[in-house]
Amino acid sequence: MDLCQVYKDEIQSLEEEIKLLAEKYEYKRQESISFSDEEISMSINSFQNEFHGQSGGHEFPSDLKAQLESLETDLSFLMKFTGIQFKSHFKKTVEKTRNRTVQKHRLSGNCHSLSFELEFQLLEMQTKESVSAVITDLSIIMGSGEDSDVRNFVSSTEERGNLLTFFRSLSLYAEWYEHRRCTFLHFK
């Protein structure tokens, strides 16, 4: 009976740890959402000043340099916020006419500890009033460790061609996948 009690105590301890992690996650999530525009601007300016000091002897036109710094700041913020890091990107123009462009894209990266690869075609149609873009031929390959729910989600996303939903869901899933992995490592 003592062994049974030890297991019950361990289970209760793990349940409490999971509850604390869930509360901590929710707190950090709310905290990241509640940053004011001023705090975000101050953070961006701080990063830009830090980057400006490390730029070295390369001279760029001031507009181009400012755009590059702004894009790097935005990318860094998004990578920290979502956990998504891109390793590679390949783009090839397949067809280009006056008002229609078809490009083939291939992306690979990580979201926390999960790896992914995407391949899709982007069809851009331009009219006098607007530009519209449609994703076609989406193919998603997830790294090892995917379960049937992930396969179903990937299949659904490939059919719909909705990359925004994919990245949002991947970010949340990968974060909780990492929490589960750490919890199971506790058993080992």
Automatic annotation (TrEMBL):
InterPro entries named among the record's database cross-references: CENP-P
Family matches, as PANTHER family: CENTROMERE PROTEIN P
Keywords: Coiled coil
GO cellular component, one term: chromosome, centromeric region
Coiled-coil annotated residue ranges, if any: 4-31
Record protein name field: CENPP protein
GO BP terms, alphabetized: CENP-A containing chromatin assembly
